[in-house]
Task: structure prediction
Amino acid sequence: MKRFLLRLFVVFLATILSLAGVEALVRVFWSKLNRQAVIPLTLKTHRFTANKVMGYELVPGSVSFEDGAWYRINGDGIRDRDFPLAKPAGAFRIAAIGDSCTFGLGLELEDTWPKQLEREMRRTRPQVEVINFGVMGYNTPQEAERIQDKVLKYDPDLVIIGYSLNDIGVLSRQRTLLVTYRGYDAFLTTGNAFVDRLLHHSKTYLLLKNRLFLKKTHADTNPQYSKDGLKLIQRGYQRFFFEAYAEPENWNTLVKAFAKIRDLTQPSLPVLLVIHPELQEMESYLFRDLHATVGRLAADHGFLFLDPLDAMLARRLRDLRISASNTHPNALANRVFAEAISRFLIEKTLVK
Result:
């Protein structure tokens, strides 16, 4: 009997070690193994909204670890700490609006430019609050809706828009993916509830569930790119941007979005538009004229405008990007961006 129990224990131990080894390998090669599976970031962090222009929003109270960073969304659907709607006495509140460059793809919250700006300003102006209202994939029309839907109720003293050149188009994958993988969250909780709870943090279990979902729905064969996203792939990076700003439909959409932001804010709430340089081919930067075009449009709508391109060009490109394959700005790029804004605000005496 003792020998049988010993053998049973050895088999059990070997099984546990084997499973642990498999789990370790799956975690090491997760990005490759999960390449065609569901993108947890979109499904955990975003949800549909009744606002047809926005299409989707951040899920209040959601938490996910993706792209090497924690994405924690507060109870009001903002990637930031909780803020009271009623502004504290003496506070100067800044609302930061933008897409993934403002939200902070691949960055911890404190490394995003809104939080770095807050720290920088508080060195001499401790009353400053900067709230990060950024949402992955939003373009300018969506950001205008975000201002109306979420920002204004916080009574900001200044709105800062982090503008990316692709904000003129619709390049967000979030809305398409939410449609493609509709029902995924419910599928993850089907089956044995005890097993789901026990293996909730297992990447191996999640991978198996993902594969079963894809086999069941064929979701991995559905298109996952927006119309403009396909244009970018087909035409190439440089051609896409120049053509996007020359297309009347895109341009008119951008103008209408700027007009809406103006109508929501002017004349009592100042708006500063700060343009994100494209972190590609910085040695011979191609898009200075597009920066100037956006600047003129901002001025036409009564917005202040700041272009920190030269500050970015003073750095090496590889030092500014998340990685060679991910051109989103890293913590250093966000710091350069935030410092440029801080200097501008102080020089223009915009913070009271």
